[in-house]
Design brief:
There is one protein chain. The protein is mainly alpha-helical and 291 residues long. It has a domain of 178 residues. 60% of the residues lie in helices and 6% in strands. The chain is built from ten helices and eight strands. The chain has a two-stranded antiparallel ribbon with strand order 1-2. Strands 3-4 form a two-stranded parallel ribbon. Strands 5-6 form a two-stranded antiparallel ribbon. α1 runs parallel beside α10. The longest helix has 39 residues.
C-alpha cells in the first residue's frame, strides 16, 4: 500500500539537500579559517595593536550568549513566536510548522485550549488543500486502494481519506493525547552540533518527549496516538470488499493495513522532525541572515 510514498520521497529529497547543505557549510567554514590565519600572520604586530573582536571558542555558546538571547528584547524566537508559545513559521515557506521552536529556553507549557487551537490552525491551513490534492492524485495514478475506484468519484474518495487521515492523526498526536497525558506536543530544535548529532536528536524525539512539567517521558502521544488514529482511519472510511468490473477487491480494513498505515505515519513524522531541525539553518541561508 503506497499511501505516503510521495510524502516520503519529498522528505528524503529534503534530507539529502540538507546533508549537502551542511557539508557545503562546513567546507566553507574551514576554507574561511585559513585566510584569516594568513592575514594574522602577515600583519604581525599591527594585528596586536588593533585586535579583532574576540570570538568564542567552538562549541562554547552557552551561558552568556544563551542568557543574553533569552533576556534580550531582540531574541528572534521571542519576536517570531506569538505569546501562546507556538510559532508562525512554515517549512519551505509553505507547510505549517507552528509547533516548532528554536532557541526556546524555558517556555511555559501549552494549555489544553492552546494545544487544540494550534493543531486546528495547522490542520485546516489552506496549503493542506494543495498537499492532500497532490497525494490523492498520485494515489489515484497508482490505483492505491483500488476499492475506491477511478474517475472523479474515486479521486474524491481518496482526497477525503487523505484529508481525514491527516486531520485525525494531527489531533490525536498533537492535542488529544498530549492533553490526556500532560505531554508537550512541540518540537524544540537542538540547533547545535554536527549533522549526525542533530539528526539523531530529531529522530529520538519520536520516542522521547517533554512533559508539561518539563520532564522527559516516553512519547506515548506520538506512538499510541498514531496507532489509534490509524485504527480509526482504517476501520471507518477505507474501502470494504468490493467488485469492480468483475474482479474481486479485498477489504482494506485489516490489522495488516492498520499496521502499515501506523508505520507510514510514524515514519513520515520522523522524517518531518529531521527536516524541522535543519529548516531554520536553511531559512537563514536563503535569506542570507547571520547564524
Amino acid at each position: 500500500m503506497t499511501r505516503t510514498d510521495f510524502a516520503f520521497a519529498s522528505l528524503l529529497v529534503c534530507l539529502l539537500a540538507i546533508a549537502s547543505f551542511c557539508q557545503a557549510q562546513s567546507a566553507a567554514s574551514s576554507q574561511a579559517a585559513d585566510p584569516n590565519q594568513a592575514d594574522t600572520n602577515q600583519t604581525g604586530s599591527s594585528s596586536q595593536t588593533t585586535p579583532a573582536p574576540a570570538q568564542p571558542p567552538a562549541g562554547q555558546q552557552p551561558a552568556d550568549q544563551n542568557q543574553s538571547k533569552n533576556q534580550g528584547p531582540t531574541n528572534s524566537a521571542a519576536t517570531s513566536s506569538p505569546p501562546s508559545g507556538t510559532s508562525n513559521d512554515r517549512l519551505f515557506f509553505a507547510l505549517p510548522n507552528f509547533l516548532t521552536l528554536e532557541n526556546a529556553g524555558n517556555v511555559p507549557p501549552l494549555t489544553t485550549g492552546q494545544k487544540y487551537k494550534v493543531v486546528a490552525r495547522g490542520s485546516f491551513d489552506p496549503i493542506q488543500i494543495v498537499w492532500y490534492g497532490a497525494l490523492s492524485g498520485i494515489a489515484q495514478a497508482e490505483n492505491s486502494e483500488p476499492g475506491y475506484g477511478q474517475g472523479a468519484q474515486g479521486y474524491g474518495k481518496r482526497y477525503g481519506a487523505y484529508a481525514a487521515d491527516g486531520t485525525i492523526e494531527n489531533f490525536f498526536v498533537g492535542a488529544i493525547f498530549p492533553t490526556i497525558l500532560s505531554q508537550d506536543p512541540r518540537y524544540f530544535q537542538k540547533g547545535q552540533g554536527s549533522f549526525f548529532d542533530r539528526t539523531g536528536y530529531a529522530v529520538s524525539r519520536i520516542f522521547w518527549t517533554r512533559t508539561d512539567s518539563g520532564h522527559g517521558q516516553f512519547n506515548y502521544s506520538e506512538i499510541v496516538g498514531a496507532a489509534v488514529a490509524s485504527a480509526i482511519s482504517t476501520y471507518s472510511y477505507h474501502p470494504h470488499p468490493a467488485y469492480h468490473n468483475v474482479p474481486y477487491i479485498a477489504s482494506d480494513r485489516t490489522w495488516k493495513n492498520t499496521a502499515s498505515v501506523w508505520g507510514s505515519q510514524v515514519g513520515y513524522d520522523t522524517l518531518t522532525l529531521v527536516v524541522k531541525e535543519f529548516w531554520p539553518d536553511i531559512r537563514r541561508w536563503i535569506r542570507k541572515q547571520p547564524h
